[in-house]
Amino acid sequence: MTEKKDVLESSALKLTSRERRFIKFASVEHQGQLYMTTQDFIESITEAEPRPRLKRRILLPRDLDHFYAVTPRASKSTTHMFRDLHDTGISG
Asked: What keywords are annotated for this sequence in UniProt (predicted)?
């Protein structure tokens, strides 16, 4: 196990069940901060366990710029927003 994962797991005893669930389902990371994609968020509500993955995707600044560009403003969102964004939007 990596040192970072050890720290997360050892501190998990102090986290709320919601925080532990967020950590479990978050599939991306930027500068040490974990994020959920819109797909992760939906799966965290509808599934008992996250889908299998080898590791979290590390986001680069250009990835964040892309997410901001494709995410509609609240006033222009639709009922299909989560389906349309899939893995190209994040929440933290």
From this structure: Membrane, Repeat
HEC readout, 46-82: HCCCCCCCCCCEECCHHHHHHHHHHCCCHHHCCCCHH
| 25 close to 36: Cβ distance less than 8 angstroms | yes
pLDDT 10s digit of each residue in the chain, 92 long? 455 555 555 555 688 999 999 999 999 999 999 988 888 988 999 999 998 888 999 989 898 888 777 777 767 666 666 666 656 665 54
Which residue ranges make up each domain of the chain?
3-91
